[in-house]
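Q: Structure tokens for this one, please.
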Amino acid sequence: MTQTIGVVGLGAMGMGMAQSLVRAGFVVKGYDIAPGPGQRLAEAGGHAAATVAEAAAGADVLIVMVVNAAQAEDVLFGSGGGAAALPAGSLVMLSCTVAPAFARKTADRLAAMGLEMLDAPVSGGPIRSAEGSLSVMASGAPALFEKYAGVLEAIAANVYRMGDAPGLGSVMKSINQLLAGVHLTAMGEAFVFGIKQGIDPRQMYEVICASAGGSWMFQNRGEHILDNDYTPRSAVDIWGKDLGIVLETGRENRLALPLAAIAHQMFLAASAQGMGRMDDAAIVKIYAQLAGVEMEG
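A: Here is the predicted structure, written as tokens:
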């Protein structure tokens, strides 16, 4: 019997996940607060739901791919009514980036309603989402991975089982975001360090990508800087949120995270300068302002 999947949040990541599920043969009902994404999903073979509850009604799985914990809370237990609309025994895949404590609390609340949950944040960006080749770092009951293997395979090239307890998937995502945010910040600092001293940025990019100092974030986002293209793939404001989650979790565990704290401050500065909706490579502009370096062109 074909499984029905509800997807709430048809942004850059959620749309790719929904379309990948359609291609894999699932019945997909998608909801987004804006009408355009639902129409695009319908054109791709899915169904546009008018409400969160409609996306959840009759679904075997409800994937929540919204911006933050507050939105996830509203989708599931607030005005969206998603959890109440799901059939008993259905699965919620909490795939947005949230604090581990929120993931644990949400799993407990869903269990009290007779629902299952996988704490299943994702990584890979819009392109890999559209390809169905994300990385999923998930935790939850082992039986859920078996029962919903087809769903996971449709959206991901890599499914990492982080443990049986909800929250561990979100811990792993926080580790990823800590590293990625620090790498982005270091990239911005390095570009301006070189440019200020007369190094050609394209040659610098070529050398670093072939050297020990490189990183995936440097290689990927460095191209945006060289092209002077700050069309948002992943926006500056995402890092204010995600690194904020890292620091919040650090405080809960009495962990000093000085590099994450510095990166967080730099992204907040970029947001304060009106760059919040720009591509996260725009972090370089803050360093350029501090150094008096012209980045345009």
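A few notes: The chain has two domains: 4-165, 171-291. The longest strand covers residues 156-163.
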